[in-house]
Amino acid sequence: MGDNVLHVADEAAMVRLGEQLGKASEGEGTLYLGGDLGMGKTTLCRGVLRAFGHQGAVKSPTYTLVEPYELAAASVYHFDLYRLADPEELEYVGIRDYFSERSLRLVEWSERGAGVLPEPDLRLEIDRFNSGRSVSLYPITVLGHRIVQRLEAGLQQSTV
Ligand code: ADP
Ligand code: MG
Known about the structure:
The chain is α/β, with parallel strands linked by helices. The protein has helices at 11-25, 41-51, 89-92, 95-99, 142-156; strands spanning 5-8, 29-34, 66-70, 75-80, 104-108, 122-129, 132-139. Adenosine-5'-diphosphate binds next to α1, α2 and β7.
């Protein structure tokens, strides 16, 4: 495994990682969350939202494609493109508007939007690892690298 792989033992640890990730993002950027059904993508999103003060549940925005969270500290948009039949549909939901302002965008099933969905700053890939999960980080832009640096600095001060 490469340098940027984190081992996450259970669901609670996944939520804590999400919280650290949210803090590290400072409420800005596009994160693709990859991994099969049931890997913990939505769980990670729940932690990210918690970093910005959202304590409630996180429903899967499967039918609406996107669930907006307008929080005091940040605007977070949670996309789940599982049901997207054609990337062109993203034009109809006004995808550009979500990417034209300062916000944090979390995208599950980004591959379904290929060609229309903007490229990410950071891609995360979740896999099974023992009874828990591994989360691999692939930063793409300068912002993505900065988020990973801040995440790793934050993780050194608290064990996930
Ligand atoms: P996805 O959005 O990828 O389909 P979910 O976030 O809905 O997946 O989570 C699916 C299941 O995985 C949940 O039952 C959750 O408890 C479990 N889970 C999440 N993170 C971990 C982890 N790090 N280790 C073990 N189980 C986890
Ligand atoms: Mg999900």
